[in-house]
Amino acid sequence: MSDIPADLKYIASHEWVRVEGDGTVTVGVTDHAQDALGDVVYVELPEVDVVLSAGDEAGVVESVKAASDIYTPLSGTVIAVNSTLEDAPEQVNSDPYGEGWFFKLRLADAGELDELLDADGYADVCDADT
Amino acid sequence: MSSALKRTPLAEAHEAAGAKMVPFFGWEMPLHYGSQLEEHHAVRSSGGIFDVSHMTVVDISGPDATAYLQRLLTQDVATLAPGQASYGALLNEAGGVIDDLIAYRRGDGYRLIVNAATRDGDLAWLETHRTGAVEITERPELAMLAVQGPEALARATAWLGAAAPALAALPPFAFLEDGDRFLARTGYTGEDGFEVVLPAAEAVDAWAALLAAGLAPAGLGARDTLRLEAGMNLYGQDMDQTISPLEANMGWTVAWAPEDRAFLGRDALAAQKAEGVPTRQVGLRLEGKGVLRAGLEVFEEGADGAWDPVGTLTSGAFSPTLKEGIGLARIKATVPKAANLAVEMRGQYRRVLRCRPPFIKKRS
Question: Residue B145 contacts by C-beta under 8 Å, 6 or more apart in sequence?
Fold first, then answer.
């Protein structure tokens, strides 16, 4: 069983969102996603200051198995990226909700948060996946 | 119509060890036991153990066995003494590779170990070309383990028992038989070690004893990156029935002498050798960060700065040892060695350096 923290939001393409409460969010890929990918060996992150719309490609994660696009669940401006993943991509596997985070956004429209899945909703997506 | 996947005698042991089991050419096999990268590193730094019981073991015997195999294989089995083995291929008449294999010369015949994916076609080919007094016996009741790594032999010493010193003293591609254990200094990782063919009923105990000796269970994922770093071909990717051994860096497996050995595919190969091969296999290393993948197109930089397609990656991976993208590619033979090469990844041309595999130094 994969770990799906109750305090996070999710989208069906297996990214998670932590609402920081100051108009910003942190985004990463879920435990279910990292498990399905296998060992992550390379991560391509968006550039800081880039403006993204919800659903845009925001990066790539390459595992021993395959390359997968990372999508931004929300619209906004990239304010930080986790550049430690360049040299330690395995953090995506070992700590997907912590040190394995991908990027932070300043939200363009906080209303979009209502569109996201909660932990139960995301658990249903994972069940349907397997 | 669905048919159940075949399971090796060790399937339950894999599941108990936490393996992620995947379908693999009709077999249910372990992909990894948690981390493919850690398994790869374990084999390079100490030792690992692979269940390769899906491989097909075929024994060839009878008074005409030598002449028969001399007609079917690229290598000349007549040059093997009992206890010696060699790597080579079965070719079709057009010189294409039906399969790659190892042929072992035993006291009273030969053993061939061929790929699981090609089993049916190989057996049909062997039967079609059978002449004279030759018996062909598949040995599905046997299991096979690969024990690989710099500490593989040392860690397996207790399990090997009295055979340990003799096995350790053998050169690569030699083998010995210790009771019903067939022990060969072969492998698919570029590391020291051995492979053992043994009765299926003994496989579970052997697996447990070797794990207890500190050998790490390793799956198909690590097996693939290990063989690629060692510059070894994977049948169905790096060569197939449409590719000759001369185009797949397997020219060294072809025994041209004696000249009158009319092995199947010889005429086509000789003609290709005289005319020059249309494509050749090269190693590629990706400049900068990223991963090479099978199927990527390879481009050569033209005089005008444009990129012209010249071939395709047949294998690609992230090399856990080198920490860079590596791959094998088949490119037009006319591409000069000094040409600038690139692959197209996500809309960008990324430079790749041509090299001669292996990507890592062989240590055995």
Answer: B49, B50, B51, B52, B53, B195, B196, B198, B203, B206, B207, B210
Reported as a single tens digit per residue, the pLDDT across B191-228 is 999 999 999 999 999 999 999 999 999 999 999 999 99
B27: domain CATH number is 3.30.1360.120
Which residue of chain A has the CA closest to B224?
A64
Give the mutation candidate from B21, B24, B32, B37 for the A interface (greatest A CB count, under 10 A).
B37
| Residue A95 covered by a domain | yes
Query: Per the domain annotation, does B40 fall within a domain?
Result: yes
Most B CBs within 10 Å, among A2, A32, A39, A40, to test the B interface: A39
Question: Which of A41, A86, A93 is nearest residue B291 as measured by Cβ atoms?
Answer: A41
Q: Which residues of A touch B293 (CB under 8 A)?
A: 66-67
Do the Cβ atoms of A60 and B346 come within 8 Å?
Answer: yes
Cα separation, A48 vs A44, in Å, equals 12
Contact A67/B at CB under 8 A = yes
Domain limits for position B320? 278-364
| CA dihedral of B250, B253, B258, B260, whole degrees rounded to 10 | -50
Amino acid at B80: L
The terminus-to-terminus CA distance of chain A in angstroms comes to: 11
- Range of the structural domain that residue A107 is part of: 9-129
pLDDT in tens, B250-270: 999 999 999 999 999 999 999
Position B295 in a domain: yes
CATH number for A86: 2.40.50.100
